[in-house]
């Protein structure tokens, strides 16, 4: 049984999709959860209410992951409310309008994707790391994508941003290991969320499911489980790694 009791975990982008599933599952494992959101206050409120009704502790903050001062304020306040920070999950990410060939992609679209996916990851880790260190160490989990491992024609901005997250993770894992902070990535493939499901349908659900050895696309809980594992002491000897959660898609190329 994964035990996250007496731990405060911050989930950046925890109001919807995989981030919300991770927030609920971490709380069920005993963690106090702080989370951020950008637009959907009602979704964030719903996650917090679910956790509180189940007997847990949770708070939500509206903050752009790429905004250094806003994220610094979030972490400072969350630590004051929920105690020392022991875990960080970076879930904030966008596709944007990035499903475009290079001849149609503008610098604005490229910059928007990089701002959230790359700068947002950098800012989240930069702000949280001193608190994790002061708490005696902890775990950082960054959501990347299988697109960041293999590339994705017609989606170069997103794939590049996810590849950058993996290299950033490996670099920061080396830097933070002496401080007792582990850093890992999880790379999901197609997972049913409010942003991904319409894309799955438009690209052809049958074809996507056909390349999954397990015969289905993922659901947020499929990623939330490995997240809680990486946050826990069960993964105490793991850092600098990328866990692929793809239902066996890589087996079929």
Spell out the blueprint of helices and strands:
Blueprint: E1 8-12, H1 17-28, E2 32-37, H2 41-53, E3 58-62, H3 68-82, E4 85-90, H4 107-134, E5 138-143, H5 147-150, H6 156-176, E6 181-188, H7 196-203, H8 205-210, H9 220-231, E7 242-245
Parallel strand pairs: 1-2, 1-4, 2-3, 4-5, 5-6, 6-7
Q: Helix proportion of residues, in percent?
A: 40-55%
The coarse silhouette is globular
Give the SSE order as H and E letters: EHEHEHEHEHHEHHHE
Q: Look at the structure and give the mean pLDDT.
A: 93
What profile does the largest beta sheet have? Answer: 7 strands, parallel
> Helix tally?
9
Strand order of the largest sheet: 3-2-1-4-5-6-7
Q: Estimate what percentage of residues fall within beta strands.
A: 15-25%
The separation of the N and C termini measures: 33 Å
Low-confidence stretches: none
What can you see in these coordinates?
With 253 residues, the protein is α/β, with parallel strands linked by helices. It has helices at residues 17-28, 41-53, 68-82, 107-134, 147-150, 156-176, 196-203, 205-210, 220-231, and strands at residues 8-12, 32-37, 58-62, 85-90, 138-143, 181-188, 242-245. A seven-stranded parallel beta sheet has the order 3-2-1-4-5-6-7, with helices on both faces. Strand 4 (85-90), helix 4 and strand 5 (138-143) form a beta-alpha-beta unit. The protein is globular, with a radius of gyration of 17 Å.
Task: Please tag this protein with its features.
253 residues; alpha/beta
């Amino acid at each position: 049984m994964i035990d996250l009791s007496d731990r405060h975990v911050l989930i950046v982008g925890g109001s919807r999709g995989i981030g919300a599933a991770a927030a609920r599952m971490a709380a069920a494992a005993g963690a106090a959860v702080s989370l951020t959101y950008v637009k959907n206050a009602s979704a964030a409120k719903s996650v917090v209410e679910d956790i509180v009704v189940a007997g847990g502790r949770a708070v939500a903050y509206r903050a752009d992951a790429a905004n250094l001062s806003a994220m610094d304020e979030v972490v400072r306040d969350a630590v004051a409310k929920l105690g020392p920070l022991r875990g960080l999950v970076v879930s904030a990410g966008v596709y944007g309008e990035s499903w475009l060939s290079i001849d149609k992609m503008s610098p604005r679209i490229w910059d928007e994707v990089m701002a959230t996916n790359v700068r947002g990851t950098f800012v989240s880790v930069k702000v949280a790391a001193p608190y994790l260190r002061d708490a005696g160490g902890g775990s950082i989990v960054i959501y990347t994508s299988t697109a960041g491992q293999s590339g994705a024609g017609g989606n170069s901005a997103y794939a590049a941003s996810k590849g950058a997250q993996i290299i950033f993770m490996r670099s920061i894992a080396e830097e933070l290991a002496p401080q007792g902070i582990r850093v890992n990535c999880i790379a999901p493939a197609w997972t049913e969320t409010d942003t991904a499901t319409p894309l799955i349908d438009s690209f052809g659900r049958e074809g996507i499911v056909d390349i999954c050895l397990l015969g289905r696309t993922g659901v947020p809980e499929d990623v939330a489980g490995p997240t809680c594992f990486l946050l826990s002491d069960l993964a105490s000897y793991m850092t600098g790694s990328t866990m692929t959660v793809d239902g066996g898609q890589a087996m079929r190329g």
